[in-house]
Automatic annotation (TrEMBL):
PANTHER family: E3 UBIQUITIN-PROTEIN LIGASE HERC1-RELATED, REGULATOR OF CHROMOSOME CONDENSATION. RCC repeats lie at residues 33-90, 188-242, 247-299. The keyword Repeat applies. This is Ultraviolet-B receptor UVR8. It comes from the Eukaryota. SUPFAM superfamilies: RCC1/BLIP-II. Pfam families: RCC1, WD40_RLD. The chain crosses the membrane at residues 91-109. The keyword Cell membrane does not apply. Residues 108-390 form the RCC1-like domain. Keywords: Membrane, Receptor, Repeat, Transmembrane, Transmembrane helix. The lineage of its organism: Eukaryota, Viridiplantae, Streptophyta, Embryophyta, Tracheophyta.
Amino acid sequence: MSAGETPGSADPSRRVVGVSVGESHTLALTGDGRVYSWGRGTLGRLGTGDEEDVPSPAPVVFDHSNEGAKRSGFVGVAAGAYHSLALDGQFFIAPFIGFLVISIGAWITTVKAGGMMSLAIDSLGALWMWGNCPNKGDAEEFCLVSSPSPLPIWDFHGHTVVKVTCGNEHVIALVTYGETFTGGDDNLSCYSWGNNNHGQLGLGDNVSRARPSIISAFDRTSSWAIYEISCGAFHTAVLARNEIGETMCWTFGFGENGQLGIGTTNNVYSPEPVESLPREAMLVSIDCGLFHTCVVSDDGCVWSWGMEKGLGLCPDATSQAGDALSPLRIKPSGIDRSPRFVLPIEVGCGAAHTVLVDDRGYKLWAWGRGRSGVLGTGQMEDSFVPCLVAWPPSSGDGGQRAQGVEAEEVVLLQAKLERMERYAGLLHLCLFGKGFDERDLSRLSNDGFDMRRELEELMETSNDGELVRMDAFYRSMHREVKERLMQRRIKGIVKDCLASLAIGDRSSMG
């Protein structure tokens, strides 16, 4: 095993190569083409055959009884608000009337899902849409049309749709200027259409569009080229790079909960950069939740902003409520207190939770609301800091979603261990003025841990400034302890006096 390689990393069944997060559920795709789901099961969105909630990753069992041959595995997943899609590696488009010439023999390469709609891109670069689709009404005005089967988007005929994403009622697509995609970001234009009541189309107004319109801020004259796109319920976020390789996040649309990350709660009708993100950061992944946004850099830094710090957007969320109007750093929890994640590759946001694919796909983190088991930890508790998802799932369950009592106990112990690690780290920081790391574990031997000796050694090796800091810290703590003791004594004296007065009153009345 090479240095830094994750144990078991040779097994593709343990590696997550794709993740998609819905309103309160998550889908994960592994390297061997298997699909796992967890979270809220209402409406059958987990694919388990019922509507029960699933608190930790469970395999989705697909019925291939009507297939002439065994499938080669799945290559894509997409979670809408209340539904899910899985893309089979051998799925072909049915020949729809009016699209026969160019769609026969083409297969689906990408699937996406939004609030109440689904999207697909085929191998020829054509875009398909079904569900509640933006369209023209009788008066040629914008409306939503319900379509139970995929419809082609004719506006991009002669071009190649490279990426697409959607929110509740709007769509964003990256499309080539020419007929084919050459691989460069500067070869793509960004289109938007659908509901625009909050400016989520980025077209400079709040007028809804039934057909795709190009976002002028990123046309051929712009110095910024988009390479990643994501839609929230009513806002949009994109990643773009300039000629010198700098990357930047741009947002527009509904801003009431700070999900645009620009420091205000105003709606924005044209793309604005999230200026407070470090300019030197190389941004690699972005996703929008219902009312929050999260972005990841290639060096393991994660930022999030938007609705309610209770989503885990802030370490002090348990004591301080409110929305995050600007990006906040999210750091991994654990004993080493590392400020960065290890080789994160993708992030996904739901209505009130976030999932991060870390360590090249061999580790999953989640934070936010825990009800219905959406964090995948086996528990229903909220988590204000990233906690490890129960991944990889235990094997040998015959394809059943229940992980068994032993696995649940392991997850519970893991959650308790993380709490103890956070407590130990805080205590160690207070005592020694530095974080607790792996090197400190060697001192916790079977011979016991001599706190007095550790303090003496620390003081012996500390410089004058560190000793002054230590003296000030312990003086402050000692003063606060004495004040608390004095307050309790005063309360005790007052209580005794009141009790004596009450007894005296009753005696005089008798």
